[in-house]
Amino acid sequence: MATEPLPLKKTAAPAPEDAVPAAGSTDGPLVRFDKVVKRYGDHVVLDQLDFTVDRGEHVTLIGPSGSGKTTILRLLMTLEKVSDGVIWVNGSPLSHVRTPGGALKPAGEKQLRESRKKIGMVFQQFNLFPNMKVLQNITEAPVSVLGKSREEAETRARELLELVGLSDKVDAHPSQLSGGQQQRVAIARALAMEPEILLLDEVTSALDPELVAGVLELLGDIARNTDITMLCVTHEMNFARDVSEKVLMFDAGRVVESGTPEKIFSDPSHERTREFLNAVL
Ligand SMILES: Nc1ncnc2c1ncn2[C@@H]1O[C@H](COP(=O)(O)OP(=O)(O)OP(=O)(O)O)[C@@H](O)[C@H]1O
Questions:
Q1: 160: phi then psi, degrees, rounded to nearest 5
Q2: Low complexity bias located where (predicted)?
């Protein structure tokens, strides 16, 4: 993450739908869901789900409650495992490893930990470590997971706290902060991992209304000034309109429609999208 503006790295042309980019390739989509199924018992939550996200793209996921949006983010964060299908990131299977013969087998815990390093997630409920001060909340994972020195991690954490407007809260505990401040710390903590992909799961839903705009403004700045790819579940349609290039409308574990925010919000093609937007706008 850089605090100065960085050009977004967009792919010149989308890859054919069935193409799988070579591992580490910068061609083709950064994220590909390939016929992903997620079941809890008999309940099929994601049903042969296909979609792609380009490098540097900011994508908003919308859809009715229970349509599977959070499940998609949790699968990408490897907090859940797919029941079937494959998630590709950067041309490598996220949830699987390739055998020497080229076949795919489910990834073990070690590979999942590696995959998790590239992806940051901010949750609705902040999920800060309550017993750690703000600075340690941000430095913990860079030191223990990325192997950074404490000094390097602290220097970066202080820069990030300045970016999110909380330089004076270095020594505070989470309980001494407002919800908006806690969410800013959670955003700084995610950025400290230098993620390629930032997952945002209804990050303003638990905030008092007067704190929402400040957090959304910060996220808008991050979207505009960095090359981080973002997947965002939100009910803030103005944020989706301002920040994302693509909106995916989900229903019953499938994409029913995708397009630019202008298209989806002004001229949706699908009846389910119209019904959903009428209910929330
Ligand atoms: N751990 C779990 N065990 C069983 N069912 C689950 C589990 N997690 C999610 N589900 C179910 O999966 C479905 C999709 O949930 P998910 O949270 O992804 O939906 P969502 O679109 O994010 O909803 P919302 O907008 O209300 O947050 C729901 O029916 C939910 O009950």
A1: -70, -35
A2: 1-23
Phi-psi label, residue 121: left if phi above 0, alpha if psi -120 to 50, beta otherwise: beta
Cα of 65 vs centre of ligand 1, distance in Å, is 8
pTM of the full predicted structure? 0.88
**Backbone angle region of 109, left / alpha / beta, with phi > 0 → left and psi within -120 to 50 → alpha:** alpha
For a pocket test of ligand 1, which of 67, 203, 254, 256 has the largest count of ligand atoms closer than 8 A to its C-beta? 67
Q: How far apart are the CA of 66 and the centre of ligand 1, in A?
A: 5
For residue 10, what is the DSSP state?
-
CA atoms lying within 13 Å on the CB side of residue 83: 14
50-65 pLDDT, tens digit each:
999 999 999 999 999 9
What are residue 58's DSSP bridge partners? Answer: 230
Quote the CA–CA distance of 44 and 212 in Å, as a whole number.
33
* Long-range pairs, 208-215, Cβ under 8 A, ≥24: 208/178, 208/179, 208/180, 211/178, 211/179, 211/180, 211/183, 212/180, 212/236, 214/180, 215/180, 215/183, 215/184, 215/187
Looking at ligand 1, which atom is closest to the CA of residue 80? 1
Of all protein residues, the one whose alpha carbon is nearest to atom 27 of ligand 1 is: 65
Does the pLDDT at position 38 exceed 90?
Answer: yes
Q: DSSP character for 176? A: G
Does 175 contact ligand 1 (Cβ within 6 A)? Answer: no
The atom number, within ligand 1, closest to the CA of 250 reads: 21
Q: Assess contact for 186 and 169: CB atoms under 8 A.
A: no
Q: Which of the 8 DSSP states describes residue 168?
A: G
